[in-house]
Amino acid sequence: MRVRLLTLALLVLPAQAWAEWHIKPFLGMTGGGGTSFVDLERAAGRPNIAVGISGVLLGDLIGIEVDAGHMPGFFQTGDQQLLAGSAVTTLTGNIVLAAPRRLTQYTLRPYVVGGAGLMHARGDYILSALSFADYLPAMDAGGGVTGFLTNRIGLSWDVRYFRSIGQKTEGTVVVEGQQLSFWRVNMALAIRY
Q1: Distance (Å, rounded) from C-alpha 72 to C-alpha 50?
Q2: pTM
Q3: pLDDT tens profile 117-155
Q4: What is the 3-state secondary structure (H, E, C) of 162-186?
Q5: Are 94 and 79 in contact (CB under 8 A)?
Q6: CA-CA distance, 100 to 162, in Å (whole number)?
Q7: Which of 27, 88, 91, 146 could form a disulfide with 156 if both were Cys (CB 3.0 to 4.6 A apart)?
Q8: Which numeric CATH code is attached to 18-192?
């Protein structure tokens, strides 16, 4: 699968695209979530801190991205103390479609992004029978804008929707898997190479 994506990127991206890399460490918030995991504190839909980093190889219109995010305390509100800890971590590979650089060179450059990857959800309840840790196939879609203050340093604002997809297999039996979805809004420092 990775070889196919790389081959597609080589065929689609123009030669000059290989000169522009963006590294984007970010800080943000999640919200609007829903889940079938045990969520006694009803925290999945509430705001939560998100930190992470993304790396983008961007051509004039099309690019590829790897995005990693971590949301500590995702299933905790802080006032009920039912969990010893919880977190959600995402890792996705995405296709980026951006406005042409020549048209947005001295202003904000909008983009849309979408792809798939993995999501890891963990909840360590005080009552261990309720605890869970699961890897889920996931998709994400969203958009944002990036603007550079200098030739190398800029800021990026991004909104994305993350959702688990598919079913889960246990041995040879296909069972309905746990579901998790949420929105992430973040601001990033954009470093261009």
Answers
A1: 7
A2: 0.83
A3: 999 999 998 888 888 999 999 999 999 999 999 989 999
A4: EEECCCEEECCEEECCCCEEEEEEE
A5: no
A6: 26
A7: 146
A8: 2.40.160.20
